[in-house]
């Protein structure tokens, strides 16, 4: 083990902030509460030279998140446990819908409107996104040391959510419902 590795989160379980090898025990990473979900960033743009971010989302059954787009962000859904329904509007305007269960995979190319709804309690999703977007959840919600779901849910003000959306290129499309 190199001294650089030891400083890269080997004992304090923080992300190193630059491209260094590191390990995180289960549940560790940069945690944030947003609405009823716990998002844990495992790898950020800082460790991948801006290439991609990796996070987990843990959430109970709930309502669909508002339809949104991000012009420069590709997004992957890989369901680890539970179920999530994903809606995407493709480039031709056709609505695609899929219920994803454990081991199922979904991909949303940059710029396409999409939404999802967690459909089973104790759902866990592994997300991969274009580098930088993984920090949207902490900016929109609140950082936490908790490993549990927020009780009560953390509901940001509309202004705070809109500001985080602008910062991370997340455009909410309240004019477009894909989940109905």
UniProtKB/TrEMBL annotation:
Q: Name one Pfam family in it.
A: Cupin_2
Domain called Cupin type-1: residue spans: 24-150
Q: What is this protein called?
A: Cupin domain
* Lineage top rank: taxon: Bacteria
* Classification via InterPro entries: Cupin_1 (IPR006045), Cupin_2 (IPR013096), QDO-like (IPR053146), RmlC-like_jellyroll (IPR014710), RmlC_Cupin_sf (IPR011051)
Listed SUPFAM superfamilies: RmlC-like cupins
């Amino acid at each position: 083990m190199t001294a650089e590795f030891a400083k890269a989160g080997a004992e304090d379980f923080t992300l190193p902030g630059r491209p260094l090898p590191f390990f995180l025990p289960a549940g560790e990473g940069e945690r944030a509460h947003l609405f009823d979900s716990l998002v844990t960033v495992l790898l950020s743009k800082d460790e991948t030279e801006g290439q991609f971010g990796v996070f987990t989302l843990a959430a109970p059954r709930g309502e669909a998140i508002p339809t949104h787009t991000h012009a420069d962000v590709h997004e992957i859904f890989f369901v680890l446990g539970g179920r999530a329904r994903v809606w995407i509007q493709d480039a031709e305007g056709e609505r695609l819908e899929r219920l994803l269960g454990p081991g199922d995979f979904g991909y949303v190319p940059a710029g396409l409107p999409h939404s999802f709804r967690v459909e089973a309690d104790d759902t866990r999703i592994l997300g991969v996104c274009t580098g930088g977007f993984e920090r949207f959840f902490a900016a929109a919600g609140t950082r936490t040391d908790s490993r549990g779901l927020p009780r009560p849910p953390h509901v940001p003000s509309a202004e705070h959510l809109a500001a985080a959306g602008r910062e991370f290129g997340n455009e909410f499309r309240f004019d477009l419902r894909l989940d109905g």
